Amino acid sequence: MATLNHDPDGIREGAVLPPLWHWLYFLPEARTDGLAEDGHPFRGEFMPPVDLPLRMFAGFELVIHKPLLLGERAWKSEQVTGIEEKHGKSGRLVFVTVSAQVGNDGGAALHEKQTFVYRDAGPPVVSTVEESRRGQDWGMEVPISPPLLFRFSALTFNAHRIHYDREYAIEQEGYPGLVLHGPLIALLMADLVRRNASEEPTTFEFRQRAPVFEGDTLRVLGFKQGDTDIELLAQRGDGRVSATGRCALA
Question: Is the pLDDT of residue 79 over 80?
């Protein structure tokens, strides 16, 4: 709660788990001596042994069949369900899809499909500058600070060094500074919906399009599309679209 600037006492046991907060469950169990140079667990255990050095979170699709409740026991099953090679502006790319179910004693509650992309070393390709969208129904601005990045890395047990090791991010992966987590952008979108909508989401989709760096301010915008659909957009301070999303409300 505090990481997203909510009152820590604002959610109690038995309350509906906010959308995407299941990512804080079932944290990776790799030991420190099981981490590669980039901070990710060695490949070939769960994730396939892709022979490309850099990895990014590309997006996800989520279907919520019923809510999870804070404090109840939950389970998760997941498997790699797709590996696809493509060639883009930055060279060779390999997309890996991981499908998962999360549930409780009553059965499966969530079905999720996440996509990760592996690429060659070199500067990341960013999206073209797009005109700032106007007429949003909801909006908020979030300063991207090192403490925010550190807190989210700790909450998700994410040791990828681009989020906390500035020297590594610049010298090894070609970024201008620390990088905002893609899942955190998605959580900020979900938090915008939670702050403004009275209904719970039933589906959520997210696609990351350009990285965001420390010192920037992220604009998170929501646009109502009829009675139940919300289009979501995240923009960097320079006007580039960082990510797009969509959710449907109950």
Answer: yes
What SS3 class is residue 179?
Answer: strand
AA identity, residue 1: M
d(C-alpha 190, C-alpha 8), whole Å: 18
Report the C-alpha gap between 56 and 162 in whole angstroms: 10
* Calpha distance 144→121 (Å, rounded): 25
Total count of domains within the chain? 1
CA atoms 48, 83, 235, 24: torsion sign:
negative
Question: For the chain, how big is the Rg over CA atoms in Å?
Answer: 18
Q: How many Å apart are CA 246 and CA 60, to the nearest integer?
A: 11
Secondary element (H or E) of residue 154: helix 146-156
State the residue range of the domain holding 174.
2-249
Instruction: For residue 42, give the H/E element and its range.
Output: none
What is the enclosing helix (H) or strand (E) of 196? Answer: helix 182-196
| pLDDT computed for residue 222 by the predictor | 96
| CATH code for the domain of 190 | 3.10.129.10
The three-point CA angle 85-91-96 to 5° equals 30
d(CA 154, CA 146) in angstroms, rounded, equals: 12
pLDDT at 132: 59
Query: What would the mean pLDDT of 74-95 be, rounded to a whole number?
Result: 91
Tokens representing 141? 């601005």
Count of other CB atoms within 10 angstroms of residue 102: 22
Q: What is the pLDDT of residues 131-150, one digit of tens each?
A: 556 688 999 999 999 999 99
